[in-house]
């Protein structure tokens, strides 16, 4: 058992839209990811997702509204809800989601990451 220093883990990578696993608990992965630009519209049929903003401002686009998240705020996107994260400037976030959750949900494209690195 060791503590996780988020700033140390975030300093290990600089690419965007490529989640890294930093912890596991009760069948859930704790992931860190840096975002910049627009992601793809997608949904997760079986999993809820929690987006916790560490640094920057995240816009979570939903089909009927946009929710703005600032540092130390989080949003839980319920399963089956179409969403698209957008970051005008780089944003660092922590994700909580069931192990095996595909980052692009029901969509496969260049953003899809199937084998996530553990750091």
| pLDDT < 50 runs, ≥5 residues | none
Structural class by helix and strand composition: mainly beta
Strand content: over 45%
Classify the fold: give the CATH topology: Jelly Rolls
CATH class: Mainly Beta
Helix tally equals 1
CATH-derived architecture: Sandwich
Q: Rounded to an integer, what's the Rg over CA atoms?
A: 13 Å
Explain what the structure shows.
The protein is mostly beta strands and 119 residues long. The chain has a single domain, classed as Jelly Rolls (Sandwich), CATH 2.60.120.10. It is 4% helix and 46% strand. The chain is built from 1 helix and 8 strands; from the N terminus they run αββββββββ. A hairpin with a 3-residue loop joins strand 4 and strand 5. It is globular, with a radius of gyration of 13 Å. The protein starts with 5 loop residues before the first helix and ends with a strand.
Can you give keywords for this protein?
mainly beta, 1 helix, globular, 119 residues, eight-stranded mixed β-sheet, Jelly Rolls, 8 strands
